[in-house]
Write a structure and sequence with these properties.
The chain is α+β, with helices and mostly antiparallel strands and about 100 residues long. The chain has one domain. It is about 15% helix and about 30% strand. The protein contains 2 helices and 6 strands. It is globular, with a radius of gyration of 12 Å. It starts with a strand and ends in a 5-residue tail after the last strand. The N terminus is likely disordered.
């Protein structure tokens, strides 16, 4: 299982983070310590993934059917970015994706 190594204050920080719909923000890292596998990413977002660029370095990973599956709006990310995402969302370095 991919390691979740600590809770962090809500906000965008360095490294990969999982923004959960309950408001929890977790720092995460790949199981192999280098890159997330597709299966790891799918587990975090509870389904097939969609990638959405944040900037030149970071990318959002979310459930591609979040709206269709009627997942809740991720309020934490809405407040931080002004964008509407549904369900749990990962923010990670593009270089951390296999």
């Amino acid at each position: 299982m991919t390691e979740i190594y600590e809770d962090c204050d809500a906000g965008i920080q360095e490294g990969s983070q999982l923004f959960k719909i309950d408001g929890t923000v977790l720092n995460i890292k790949p199981k192999n310590g280098i890159k997330f596998t597709l299966e790891e990413l799918k587990t975090f977002v509870n389904g097939n993934i969609e990638m959405y660029p944040f900037n030149d370095e970071y990318i959002f990973i979310l459930n591609e059917e979040g709206l269709i599956k009627k997942m809740r709006v991720n309020i934490t990310l809405k407040l931080l970015t002004g964008k509407t995402f549904f369900g749990d969302v990962i923010l990670c370095l593009q270089s951390e994706i296999e």
